[in-house]
## 1
Amino acid sequence: MPPNKKPIPTHFLSLPLTTTSSAPQWQAALQNFSADIQALRPCLPSVSASSSTTSSLPEPATRPIIPVKAIRPVGTLHLTVGVMSLMRTEEVDAAVDFLRRVNVEGVLAEVGGRRLDRDRRGEGEAVLMEGKGPDSSSSYPPLTLSFTGLKSMRSPASTSFLYTPPEDASGRLYPFCQALRDRFTREKLMVEETRAMKLHATVLNTIYAGKVYPSKLPAQAEGPAVKDAEKEHGSEGDHHEEGHLTGEPAGGDHEVAEHNRAGSKSGHPDHQSLKRKKGKRRKQAVQFDARDLLERCVDFEWARDVKVEKVAICEMGAKKMLDENGEVVGEEYTEIASVSLLL
């Protein structure tokens, strides 16, 4: 790959959060959340009212504040460990093979051993446990997470992306995910990330709501909010969500990149879509003021005791699921490989 050329994201390593037992919880929470946001009327970021060139944009009174379509389907919920750029079949095969060889159960037992050792010794560094550790099947319980509250990856006064953070009483989630990321990065199977990891389950992203605005507004119409939106999504070749463009800690996510794949028939991102010609219209996220919503959702419980059952490599771009009548009943990411995490 030529120097300074950004990797094109094609896959991601994740911890899926929708299981047989957790799906009803997530579904009920998302339905309640949907009803809640439809009752809200937060303020839109301001655009210069003096410009006559803004007439092509909907008026705030009629423009959807938080489009319901921005809520992520239950089948897409996950934590992203890292993003991959696997452009050739050989690279995909190598990533799948490595996932099957990495012994994720052993990695989880290893970080669990560090935690247990610190608890026993009550002091700084823990003894590094190699391999699976002693009697790992009985020593270490499954990785179980809960999700409460709502956060914005950037300033909630003007955002397009909200998530719920994972709660892990065992303290193993972050060390486990970081260990996986380190291993895949060393094998050159994952896009290198130098910023701190910030795991999150995306529950709302307005870029999925299908709004299209001019790719470049005239200079006199560029208020602060418009500039922020251009900064956030103007360089759509970036392979992370808002954090990648704003200096936030790395979430390792990928959803903005998925929209670069629109129109691609090859299964890889449409590289030409990353370089839109001036004057073309492109998809941009609706920005909204989420402060009231975040305050109302401080104690909102999304799901409790979600057992992480596997580690999976998925393709970018959630696929629609159809019933026997051809009606869309949900969305899911295509899993190309997974390994069990149930010890």
Note: The CA atoms of residues 325 and 331 lie 16 Å apart.
## 2
Amino acid sequence: MTTVLTFTDKSLPPLTLQLYSATSISTKDATLLPSLTALINLCYSVSHTSGPHGNYLPYAYQRLLTPTSLIDEVGKDGFIFVLTIQTPESEQKLIASASAKPFRELEHYELAQGSELATNFKRRAAAPGLDAAARFKPLQTAKSGDPTVAVDSLKEGKVLPKWEIVCNVVHPEYQRRGIAAQMYEALVKEMKNRVSAQGDQDVHLVITTMKELNEVYYQKRGFMTTGERRFEKGVGGSEVGFSVVEMEKIA
């Protein structure tokens, strides 16, 4: 099932947001998944490589290894938003995408989509014998106070459905126009619609992202940093090292 929404932006032609399941996007047409994969990899390559003192990751870094990687990651219960813009030739150009799925912590040191580098950005249970510095450890204190108490107290300890945001990207040519914020709002609305069908009014959001790039952006949207892991120079080809943070929010 596909839902079509229209965004209005005075500086842009009409924007059309389409909602897909993993099944529907794979059967839409033969070019959509490869185009979506190319967009996501382009956005990650551009954003994750350029640091003020060197590249965070090599430019060849690919977020998705194959056109079906996103389908495998989102799974049967997740969803994918695709945003297109109408060109002067009246064609639809893919410019943004965002996805979400019910959260599942990786088992021990299970590889994410077969990539050790991608696994660095995934939450997972501690593996026996894995050095403590190489896995996420909860922060003792977040900027908004103790993260565990802060998250739980919002709903008095009620266990809420937990969803993870993945692959929230906007083409570099269309960034800084509020598109990412609109995509995020659409994600939250769709997640809340899905959990409300199960009798819940709120959803526990989680995201794992590069600290240097996105922590402040998500903090402005009410997320708290609840875990952090540091990777030094040389890991995954990084020239300067980087940190990966876990962030959470009740919406």
Note: DSSP finds seven helices and eleven strands in the chain.
